[in-house]
Design goal:
α3 crosses α5 and α7 runs antiparallel to α8. β5 and β6 form a beta hairpin. A 4-stranded mixed beta sheet has the order 2-3-1-4, with no helix packed on it. The relative contact order is 0.14. About 40% of the residues lie in helices and about 15% in strands. By secondary structure, the chain is α+β, with helices and mostly antiparallel strands.
């Protein structure tokens, strides 16, 4: 399961001929957005034709050789910072996007890596509160739908989205109970913590929560990776990558401030 969750700074190296045009004032520079794994990444290198002065208006345009596409280099992941205006709020869109990406959508129930019967965006049908969630989301039809889904009935896209909405509020509440200062952290940190609550590696590690809430982020990141499942060479590559990403983001808290 391919995951992201961190932002990258992309550096564009311009060919010499383009650089010469930029120097001559024929090309401008700016910012452009590039999307990788569902995350908006910042970069440089949008080329915009600048209006020429009247002095050269009637001169023939220079002949420019056809250029190949600029090479974009991905730099080392850099922790997203958060402005004062952003602090103290929950970044729901960022969190939801990452959770959906991490969990993936399965409209028919399946067994997850932990052996739990799962459907939709990581909804655990074996969890004690699963039936209650179905009743809350789908009303009078919730109980029968829960039974049918466990038997193999496929959810529609709308049903999967509605179920996710019900699950999201529950998991966000659990995360805020375990991490009281969740709002103070950047969107990326909030996202990996709620996603970790979905998977269970935030809720099942008291030591991780103790270290994180004490502000010892480096030790908390190491604790997150000190898990029996990650020492198993057969662990799913997606699980290992997801945990390593979360640990990196948590370890980087405060480094860019």
């Amino acid at each position: 399961m391919k995951t992201t969750g961190n932002q990258y700074i992309a550096e564009v190296k311009l060919p010499k001929s383009i650089k010469s045009l930029a120097t001559a004032g024929l090309l401008g520079s700016g910012l452009f957005g590039m999307t990788v794994g569902g995350a908006k990444l910042a970069g440089v290198g949008r080329f915009a034709q600048q209006p020429q002065s009247s002095a050269v208006e009637n001169q023939p345009a220079p002949v420019v050789a056809k250029q190949t596409a600029p090479v974009v280099q991905q730099a080392k992941p850099k922790q997203t910072t958060q402005s004062k205006e952003q602090s103290g709020i929950i970044h729901h869109d960022v969190i939801k996007n990452l959770v959906k990406q991490d969990e993936g959508l399965r409209t028919k129930c399946y067994r997850c890596t932990a052996g739990k019967l799962t459907v939709g965006y990581g909804h655990n049908l074996d969890a004690p509160g699963s039936l209650g969630t179905f009743k809350k989301v789908f009303g009078p039809d919730g109980e029968s739908l829960h039974r049918q889904v466990r038997g193999g009935k496929e959810l529609s896209q709308k049903q999967a989205d509605d179920l996710f909405s019900g699950d999201y509020e529950s998991h966000l509440t659990k995360t805020r109970e375990m991490i009281p200062d969740l709002e103070k952290h950047s969107p990326n940190v909030q996202a990996v913590l709620v996603s970790g609550t979905y998977r269970g590696h935030v809720g099942d590690s008291p030591n991780f929560r103790k270290l994180f809430n004490a502000g010892n982020y480096s030790a908390a990141a190491k604790e997150l990776l000190d898990r029996k499942e990650l020492r198993d060479p057969k662990v799913a590559r997606g699980v290992r990558g997801r945990m390593q990403r979360d640990a990196q983001i948590i370890s980087d808290i405060g480094k860019s401030k």
